[in-house]
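tool=predict chain=A
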Amino acid sequence: MKISRRKKLVDSLRDDEYRHEFVDQRITVGVASQIREMRRGRGWTQSELAKESGTRQQVISQIENPDYGKLTLSTLKRIASAFDVALIVKFAPFSELIDDFINRTPESLAVPSFGNDTKLKEETITDSLAIFREVLFAQPRTPLTSEYILTNTFSAPETSFDKTRNGKPIRKTSTTETRKRNALIFDETPRGYAYDTDRIR
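tool=predict ok
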């Protein structure tokens, strides 16, 4: 079904006049529809969206009208900020425009805010698990400060063997090394890990 629709659309776009009109309609109708769906998805009235974007209800009503066709980039940026979503403005090949048109659904129009973006949440969980595993098992990669010295940070722990169990010595880890390990934090730069020296003191 989609292949048939795509072929028909490609054939129609071979006409210059139809092609230019199609682009114009995708901008005006598409943006107006998406703003309306995002507003409804959040349970907002036009007046509430106007308040969030610093404009008037009449302006929102015009923006949601597919026949208005006078949207400015400045207005779109304010709307994006109100919804807490990204705004992508770019030139694209017709193949990309066709794919977007064929695959667009009402659900895809209702873009979630940054805080409700499930893909970002999944990435955060995945990254957190990876960081946790590295903190437990990995060696540090690159020193970040002058206080961070690789040989001292991960040197062999001080031990004592003043007790035995079943004839074998029991190793005790020193308090200093335990405090160092507890102070290990993840530095948000791409270089890796560092110790929080203030917490080690």
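Residues 16-41 form the longest helix (26 residues). The chain has two domains: 2-116, 119-200.
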